[in-house]
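Hey, resending since the last one bounced:
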Amino acid sequence: MRRPPRRDRCRRSGDRGSASVLVVGACAVVVVLAAGALEVARAVSVSHRARAAADLAALGAATALSLGATAAQACGRAADLSARNSARLSMCVASGGQVDLVAVATSDRPWQMTASARSRAGPAPVAVWAG
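The structure tokens again:
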């Protein structure tokens, strides 16, 4: 006895390989999400590097001021410390024992990303209470 041909077999042949397309699409989504996560991590890293450089440079400059250095010498010390921490100093104001500065850190690979941080160091202002 002979079986009649199956009609659903023709319908399924058009779906052949569709799972492969879905897997390739899912892999593409995973790759794009991983690349985005790496970019966020790089941005956080550059930001932390800028903050650390600014804080250390401000502390170094304030220490130099407290030891009798001029404002130019203190800002030079801040620029040196900033460069040692892979950043550059974009602004430095030293007066009255206090230092205000801005450090900029840059990451060039695969494209440029820049972060800046501001820091202040020096003796705490004296609070006067008239009560």
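The radius of gyration is 30 Å.

Sorry for the duplicate.
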